[in-house]
Amino acid sequence: MMNRWQFLKRLTPLLALMVLVLSACGRADLSALNPQGPVAQEQFGLMKLAFSIMIGVVVVVFALCLFVIVRFRRRRGDKSIPKQVEGSHKLEIIWTVIPIILLIILGVPTVQSVFNLSKDHSNDPDAVKVIVTSHQYWWEFEYPELGIKTAQELVIPKGKIITIEAKTADVLHSFWVPSLAGKIDTNPGGNANRMYFSAPKEGVYLGKCAELCGPSHGLMDFKVKSVDDASFDRWAAALQKPVAMPSDPVVAAAFESKCLVCHAVGDKGGPLYPNLTGIGSRDSVGGILINTDDPKYSNEGSTYDNLHRWIENPDDIKPGNLMGKIDLTQQELDGIAKYLSELTLDNEK
Amino acid sequence: MDWLTTVDHKKIGILYLIAGGFFFLVGGLEALLIRIQLWKPLNDFVSADTYNELITMHGTTMIFLAAMPMLFALMNAVVPLQIGARDVAFPFVNALGFWTFFFGAVLLNVSWFTSTGAPAAGWTAYAPLSGPAFSTGHGMDYYVLGLQIAGIGTLIGGINFLVTIINMRAPGMTFMRMPMFTWASFITSALILFAFPALAVGLAALMFDRVFDANFFDPNNGGNAVLWEHIFWIFGHPEVYILILPAFGVISEVISTFSRKRLFGYSSMVFATILIGFLGFMVWAHHMFTTGLGPVANALFSIATMLIAVPTGIKIFNWIFTMWGGSIKFTSANLYAVGFIPTFVMGGVTGVMLAAAPADFQYHDTYFVVAHFHYVIVGGLILGIFSGLHYWWPKMFGRILNETLGKWTFWMFYIGFHLTFFIQHFLGLLGMPRRIWTYLDGLGFNEMNLISTIGAIMMGIGTIMFILNVVITNAKPQNAADDPWEDGRTLEWTIPSPPPEYNFKQTPLVRGYDAYWKEKMDGHKGMTPAEPIGSIHMPSPSILPFTMSLGLFITGFGLMYSRDWTFITEHIGFYIAGLGLLITFGSMFLRSVYDDHGFHIEPEELEDKGVKA
Ligand code: HEM
Ligand SMILES: [Cu+2]
Questions:
Q1: Which residue in the set B47, B226, B261 is minimally distant from A85, CB to CB?
Q2: Cα–Cα distance measured from residue A181 to residue B361, given in angstroms and rounded to the nearest whole number
Q3: Under DSSP, is residue B450 helix (H, G, I), strand (E, B) or coil?
Q4: Cα A203–B434–A194 angle (5° rounding)?
Q5: Which of B123, B124, B240, B251 to mutate to test the pocket of ligand 1 (most atoms within 8 A of CB)?
Q6: Is the ipTM of this complex over 0.90?
Q7: Which of B290, B309, B318 has the CB atom closest to A185's CB atom?
Q8: pLDDT on residue A11
Q9: Which ranges of B356-382 does DSSP label H, i.e. alpha helix?
């Protein structure tokens, strides 16, 4: 017995090292191993605990296996018959009790954490409430207290607790921001799920849909943008301002008759599909075409190029999405892409 | 023709093996296509729709049409022999079980060739995506009806094994003398008995939603989508243990034989098997931690799930201590069995990690889970099946598989397997969700996915090597000894390879655990018979199981197209469905009115047949 514990003790530095190596893993804005907020931090703590215990178990079992295989392999021509051992109560009790102890070590913090992470902050006056509604294949974020709605990019004030009410407009999806929090399914039919998280640091964090929801399930990405309080207030205010229509009357007519039946900008248009107010300020088009003036990958391009690509044939980008190809002349297409790429929110100061 | 009418458990075992092996190849091909699609970012080797069809059919095929039947193949080939029986309790029902499985499987795969394509809502078929509103076309209809028909086969097969094991044991074969594989088959059959009706109910409800406009799972009309998750996993989690327990049984037999030692802690092994089976029913909601069941449910299901690690641990250590002090021979069969242990341990520990609900909020539906369940299903179940096939091949076919090629195959498959799946743990932790058709460039997923694809190709090569081995071996003469491994411990090794139709000329008398080993140690050549040589009663072959299943197949077809087909008259599909049912019930009727007494093999015939051909 004594030996066993000493063995484990000797193992601890190794385990600590493994955990260290792991914790530096992955992109800070995407990896569950590189948590950027308290909720993900707590989950990561539990993962580390489980991981350490399990590495211990694996090492012990592998060592035993290896020893047995090497030590007791049959020599050529060996006809001897080993002793037929029936079993050993002592040993069997040992390997029943030790796992139970290990499970208690893991089980207690698990249960604590389950209750901790299910706290309901929806009545907390300091928390920011957001109603998340998932759609095939985009995300809608509504701030009921501020009376604003946006899509694809969840802007949050840094450090504040964000409480999520998650719903879906169609099938099951799952709201997941690995570096800030775990995931929660969005169930249809009125039963909203709740979750909370916060991001102490400013930055953009990647979010994904984690529940098979149709052909473009894997492309249903979104961003969480954490900004300081003042920027957040400016952003919220800017979002509520009316928006000017395209200056070219042909483009304006096309935009109003072909786009605003579903989309909204400012106080105009329909609420059916993603709200486009401020789309020129977003980090991506459709969640997956990354806006950058210095593209490195084929899913990147300038805001204008990305919008152009998307409007020209959305089905090429996200198969099965409900926008469909819109009938536009080249001039209308160029004009709308240009207009939208310039449709920024003047909230930076 | 012989094969269409057979009711002999050994032949049915071979049928299961051929059909299951075929679907294993189909599922494997689907897996390779999936991995090819993912070998680089933003690949468009297959379309998004095709990709979802591939993952759905891969999962469904591997679980229901490959793993289950291959286990049934081993159970059919071995269980009656291990308990000293002449056949299963209901040979006719046994044949019926095979044919319903087979026609259900064919029906499911026909979907590939239809214009609306294969089902694409994942093997878990979560509503409402699987419902009529979001899965238009007939793909999901094939899933619902194909699995329903195949499920009937599994259910009656399970019941048959339960009755066989309870009623047909040779004199002296008490429950606590039964070989571990038989025990595992027994518990598995019990799980089938309780789990498959849940699946049948779920599929029936989904069929009503799809074919008859019901609203069980449609939230817009008062249905409940989460209900499907519960029904599915109440079946689905036990299903996982239905699969793994027989593999545990195989490992116990193989390790003990090739260590020349009796199984360490037999009674605790039996107890652990029962306990795993029982707990398997208590943990379904660990697949639903993120569904929002609330902290109380999540905490309870977390703890219940973790508990399964205890009996599983008991089994692992008992296997290691079976080898301890033994004389271990590394045949191909034993390589698979020994390779199984560390692999399964890794799948088990990630299982416990998943069981911690708050951490599962991160793991769930990512590649971490994909890695976990492939470590248990491939690293556990498939290695177990390969081990069992190499081990019992001489008993089933009278020929020993080529050992050298067998070992090469093992290493190819084993290394390929770890290359494919080990790295996927990290992919998941770094943020790659599962079931995604493609991933963006620059997220840091590229290299790991490439490695994973290379591993998958190695597994594919390994599988082809196995088939090659089968073909080569088949060309050799049928000359395996009764006890080809020389250290056989259980009853199947006391009779010729392959066994005669009636298995045992005289039912053996069992005098202890590891009955044959005991006789050998007492210096006897074979078993003491429990009866004088006499005439043996055999069941007659029958085509009716085939026609009954064919009828169900036709019914399934008709139901699916009941709305589309309007030539001749409206709703012609319903008439076709009716015709199918008529065939099925007609066959049942014939079976009831026609009194078939079977036939007898007389002692004189036994003398010539007993001598091996
Ligand atoms: C020590 C034993 C085991 C434990 C503790 C365990 C635990 C779990 C848990 C907690 C999950 C849910 C993960 C998630 O969805 O996030 C899971 C998923 C899964 N497990 Fe296991 N498991 C064990 C054994 C097995 C075995 C023996 C098999 C198969 C032969 C298996 C197959 C699966 C499959 C297929 C899934 C994926 C379900 C899906 O999302 O489609 N598990 N397991
Ligand atoms: Cu989604």
A1: B261
A2: 8
A3: helix
A4: 55
A5: B240
A6: yes
A7: B290
A8: 54
A9: 357-363, 367-376
